[in-house]
Specification:
The complex is a heterodimer. By secondary structure, chain A is an alpha+beta fold. Chain A folds into three domains: about 300 residues, no CATH class; about 110 residues, no CATH class; about 60 residues, Arc Repressor Mutant, subunit A, CATH 1.10.10. Helix content of chain A is about 40%, strand content about 20%. Chain A contains 16 helices and 15 strands. In chain A, strands 3-6-7-10-1-11-12-13-14 form a nine-stranded mixed sheet. In chain A, strands 5-4-15 form a three-stranded antiparallel sheet, with no helix packed on it. Chain B is mainly alpha-helical. Chain B has a domain of about 40 residues: Histone, subunit A, CATH 1.10.20. Chain B has three helices and three strands, in the order ααβαββ. In chain B, helix 1 crosses helix 2. Classes of the chains: A alpha+beta, B mainly alpha. Chains A and B meet through strand 2, helix 2, strand 8 and strand 9 of A and strand 1, helix 3 and strand 3 of B. Strand 9 of chain A pairs antiparallel with strand 3 of chain B, so a sheet runs across the interface. Bound molecules: zinc ion. The site of zinc ion (ZN) has 8 residues of chain A, from loops. Chain A: InterPro entries: Asn/Gln-tRNA_amidoTrfase_suB/E, Asn/Gln-tRNA_Trfase_suB/E_cat, Asn/Gln_amidotransferase, Asn/Gln_tRNA_amidoTrase-B-like, GatB, GatB_Yqey_C_2, Gln_synth/guanido_kin_cat_dom. Chain A: Keywords: ATP-binding, Ligase, Nucleotide-binding, Protein biosynthesis, Transferase. Chain A: Its EC number is 6.3.5.-. Chain A: GO terms for molecular function: asparaginyl-tRNA synthase (glutamine-hydrolyzing) activity; ATP binding; glutaminyl-tRNA synthase (glutamine-hydrolyzing) activity; transferase activity. Chain A: It catalyses: L-aspartyl-tRNA(Asn) + L-glutamine + ATP + H2O = L-asparaginyl-tRNA(Asn) + L-glutamate + ADP + phosphate + 2 H(+); L-glutamyl-tRNA(Gln) + L-glutamine + ATP + H2O = L-glutaminyl-tRNA(Gln) + L-glutamate + ADP + phosphate + H(+).
């Protein structure tokens, strides 16, 4: 069904669940290393493998991170809460249950304000943020697609089992109409920026350290009751969040308009064509037989502890953006371009490393953005640091590099040739700043072009361009053209 | 008093991934009923002034420092596995299910 037609008949209703893996040193309940990408089953112990006789002990830093996330999301922090066992039988959980908070989350009832592309602010309510543990990773062998259907057997790696996970659940998001997909994307973006500022997670959607499940339902216009919802999983990028919500809206609209019913189920997002496909019917929460975890004692954070953590909250991304925009005296439009290019933090770090904001901004939004586009990567993924960019800028300011040479230095850094100063040495890129050498080159060029030299002497300064060009050629572009021009005129007026 | 039906036993068996025959459904329904009835007697002595208890010791806030501790090697981890392949636990495929 066409998107506009869906909106003419229905109100989209959203609920977003974001799982974020914490970047603690160790897992939630054991001392195993919490690190992405290790050899399979090398970051495991009796506790996270669910071997008999092992006992979990809660990671203090994970608890603090959970509370800081809750505080940053304007949540209440529970005075007392417990873990529960969520029982299900599936090989990704070797214990046959997941240790998770259930009806007593550590943080609840908050909100997050987000800014849409045109500057409109939307407040999304936060239902709760609770602690749980991640599952192992399954590899399905034998099926054509690597999916479970048709698989002969599955192979399990439990390095990820027990990694601290915070699940952040929004309240129902209603009344956003046509902007629902955009709101979903803006929410995950704002949450990612917030978590990054808190320093509690790597927030890499591509590596699964930030994952979003999107609950979508449609409500006929003017009705009060919600429709049946679906939960789309496997949404692994910000763009996919927007596409998945939009796809579910049009799919559900078509089903409902055709007199059909929406089935409450898990659906899988297909990155290739932006569609969703039916997965398993949802087990009801009753089926999980939740009960309080007897092996972990309750958590009762003192109010002093909570206030101490509140004091550790960093400047929030939106406050930081407001301050930066004012510091750099940028218009809303200029600043939004910077935001949309993903350059704000990079420019800010470059300024922190000593560059002027104008120079830093110019490098990141023009030359480096171009390089990122050529390589088809995000700006932040370019193999150059803000400190390195700042160094290049200062070399130009000191007159040791021309802008053209500076670009070569940046190319060298991007090519993995080392720090800017090393690239200057290795590629022999330093500006020829020795006036003696330059003067000799200027004299040589004047001697080779006596007619032009005569014109300059006669006051036709514009003719100097040819001489400057020759000198630049002779010095392989490594002279400061402005200085060369000065010298040419100097030599012709003595 | 609990009264466990055959259908409930069948549902539980499905959740627990257990294959249960028709005869066993009747047997287990009766046995589970007896067990639950016995446990339910605890409720008879619980008065309003006794809060539900999940932990028998009055402890809270037991935490561990976030420090890495040596776990098992891959070989140790897989030593007790019925089957392993490529450093991973090998398990039979799970029919019609996807997490
Ligand atoms: Zn472990």
């Amino acid at each position: 069904m066409a998107y506009d037609e869906v909106l003419s008949r229905f109100d989209p209703v959203l609920g977003l669940e974001v799982h974020v893996e914490l970047n603690t040193n160790t897992k939630m309940f054991c001392g195993c290393r919490n690190e992405f990408g290790g050899e399979p089953n090398t970051q495991v112990c009796p506790t996270c493998l669910g071997l008999p006789g092992s006992l979990p002990v809660l990671n203090a830093v994970a608890v603090e991170s959970a509370m800081r996330i809750g505080l940053a999301l304007n949540c209440e922090i529970a005075e007392w809460c417990r873990f529960a066992r969520k029982n299900y039988f599936y090989p990704d959980m070797p214990k046959n249950f997941q240790t998770s908070q259930y009806d007593e989350p550590i943080a609840f009832d908050g909100y997050l304000d987000l800014e849409l592309d045109d500057g409109e602010i939307v407040r999304v309510g936060i239902e709760r943020a609770h602690m749980e543990e991640d599952t192992g990773k399954s590899l399905h062998v034998g099926g054509a697609t690597g999916r479970i259907h048709g698989a002969e057997h599955s192979l399990l790696d439990y390095n990820r089992a027990g990694v601290p996970l915070i699940e952040i659940v929004t309240k129902t998001i209603e009344g956003t109409g046509a902007r629902a997909p955009e709101v979903a994307r803006a929410y995950v973006t704002a949450l990612r920026d917030l978590l990054r500022a808190l320093g509690v997670s790597d927030v890499r959607m591509d590596q699964g350290s930030l994952r979003c499940d999107a609950n979508v339902s449609l409500k006929p216009l003017g009705r009060k009751e919600f429709g049946t919802r679906t939960e789309t999983k496997n949404v692994n990028s910000l763009r996919s969040v927007e596409r998945a919500v939009r796809y579910e809206m049009t799919r559900q609209g078509a089903v409902l308009a055709g007199g059909g019913e929406i089935v409450q189920e898990t659906r899988h997002f297909q990155e290739a064509d932006g569609s969703t496909s039916a997965g398993r019917r949802k087990e009801t929460s009753e089926d999980y037989r939740y009960f309080p975890e007897p092996d972990l004692v309750p958590i009762a954070p003192s109010r002093e502890w909570v206030e101490k953590l509140r004091g550790t909250l960093p400047e929030m991304p939106w406050e930081r953006r407001k301050r930066i925009q004012a510091d750099w005296s940028l218009s809303d439009a200029e600043f939004r371009d910077l935001v949309n290019a993903g350059a704000v933090e990079l420019v800010a770090s470059t300024v922190d490393a000593g560059a002027s904001s104008a120079e830093a901004r110019s490098w990141w939004v023009s030359y480096l953005t171009q390089q990122a586009n050529n390589r088809e990567v995000e700006l932040a993924e370019l193999p150059i640091t803000p400190a390195q960019v700042a160094r290049v800028i200062s070399l130009v300011a000191e007159g040791k590099l021309t802008n053209k040479l500076a670009r070569s230095v940046v190319d060298g850094v991007l090519a993995g040739e080392g720090e800017p100063d090393e690239v200057v040495d290795k590629r022999g890129l330093a500006v020829v700043s020795d006036d003696g050498a330059l003067t000799a080159a200027v004299d040589e060029a004047l001697a080779a072009n006596p007619d032009i030299a005569e014109k300059i002497r006669g006051g036709k300064v514009a003719a100097a361009g040819k001489i400057v060009g020759d000198v630049m050629k002779a010095t392989k572009g490594q002279a400061d053209a402005k200085r060369v021009r000065e010298l040419v005129i100097e030599r012709c007026t003595v | 008093m609990p009264n466990i039906s055959r259908d409930e036993v069948a549902h539980l068996a499905k959740l627990a991934r257990l294959a249960v025959t028709d005869d066993e459904l009747d047997t287990f329904a009766g046995q589970l009923d007896t067990i639950l009835s016995s446990v339910a007697r605890v409720g008879e002595v619980a008065a309003d002034d006794i809060p539900p208890t999940s932990h028998s010791v009055p402890l809270t806030n037991v935490f561990r420092a976030d420090e890495v501790r040596q776990g098992l090697t891959q070989a140790e981890a897989l030593a007790g596995a019925p089957a392993a392949e490529d450093g991973r636990f090998r398990v039979p495929r799970i029919l019609g299910e996807e997490q």
